TrEMBL record:
Biological classification of the source: Bacteria, Bacillati, Actinomycetota, Actinomycetes, Propionibacteriales
Protein name: Phage shock protein C (PspC) family protein
Subcellular location field: Cell membrane
Main location: membrane
Matches recorded under PANTHER family: PHAGE SHOCK PROTEIN C
GO cellular component: plasma membrane
Topology in the lipid bilayer: Single-pass membrane protein
Keyword Transmembrane carried by entry: yes
Residues of the Phage shock protein PspC N-terminal domain: 4-60
Segments crossing the lipid bilayer: 34-57
Length: 61
């Protein structure tokens, strides 16, 4: 069972968004970070979505 969508207090680099998403979907944090970096090479609002999630996702603890 996947955990809730929160930014963890540990294993966070910038805002913890990738770590929180990785935990939610049951994959490695580094895998999620790699997916995000690669997705930034494609056209689209990925960076804006990251900022919005950083603001909206509650911090753990």
């Amino acid at each position: 069972m996947a955990s809730s969508l929160v930014r963890p207090s540990r294993d966070r680099w910038i805002g913890g968004v990738c770590s929180g998403l990785a935990r939610r979907f049951g994959i490695s944090s580094n895998t999620m970070r790699l997916i995000f970096v690669v997705s930034c090479l494609l056209p689209g609002p990925q960076f804006l979505i990251y900022i919005v999630l950083w603001i909206l996702m509650p911090s753990e603890g």
